[in-house]
Amino acid sequence: MSEKTTKIIYWSLTGFIAFVFVGSAMGKLTADAKALEMAASMGLDANTYKMLGFIEIISVLLFIFPRTGILGTILLVAYMGGAIATHLENGQSIIAPCVIQTILILVSIYRFPELVQRILNKGK
User: Comparing C-alpha atoms, which of 103, 86, 113 is closest to residue 20?
Assistant: First the structure.
């Protein structure tokens, strides 16, 4: 695979993840009454809901930039873990957050091969 093709795949996958999380964050930051009602049913008040939006934005910005991408990956994976736990606690389907987290992990493995080396202890 050529370097140009690799870069196109790299940035396309990064853009897809960014699109998903920025869309979610914007939904939280510009929440309407119905969204706030849904958040309240999960035990979240309006301020907490907006704070989650800010956390998502910061995490995805860290993910986008290659220098801080691994930190962003860790934060987004942890965030999705919290989303899965919240869905489980409230009796909601966990399929969507699990799919998003799986895609995030696969994209991160592609973007940051050093993660796999570190996890499998092959870097020494």
Answer: 103
